[in-house]
Amino acid sequence: MNRTTYSFQVYLGTPKDTWVHLIKSEGIMSLFSDEQLTDEAKAKYRLIGVTTKLSPQEVEDIERLAKKHGLPRSEFIRQLILDELARDSVEPPVSPELIEILGLRLMLTNLLRPLATGQKITPEIFDGMIAEVKKHKRNLAVKTRTDLERA
User: How far apart are CA 33 and CA 141, in angstroms?
Assistant: First the structure.
């Protein structure tokens, strides 16, 4: 009886160059090739490595937190990145009070300087100033809140 034997040959290179071959007594049969994957399938797999350098203390801190969460270090770092991306994609909620307070601050800042230097403010300039404040106050409130959360 003729038995066919199989063994694996693995080459780990850059994600694009990584391959696995099943070696059969009659030849080599590729199990995974870049050409066989559709773009949709490629998007589902984690094929791209992202690296950074950390100090020994930073590594200790990350390892301690990963252990606390019961995750391997790489999975913990991946989860931190994915959580931050998810948080960044959603506009953070900002209270209407903060938006209006910053709107008033913008308005006062833009009104008091010209008045203090003796410039006259026409109704058109005033209306333009109000329109600009309305346009920018929410974005300023989001930025202020984000800055405060990170501080």
Answer: 49
Helix/strand/coil (H/E/C) assignment for every residue in 1-15: CCCCCEEEEEECCCH
pLDDT in tens, 61-82: 999 999 999 999 888 898 888 8
Beta-ladder partners of 7: 23
- Output the six-digit token pair for 75: 């999975």
Alpha carbons 51 and 56: distance in angstroms, whole number: 15
Residue 30's DSSP bridge partners are 21
SS3 70: coil
Enumerate the domain spans of the chain. 6-44, 56-89, 96-150
Total-model pTM: 0.41
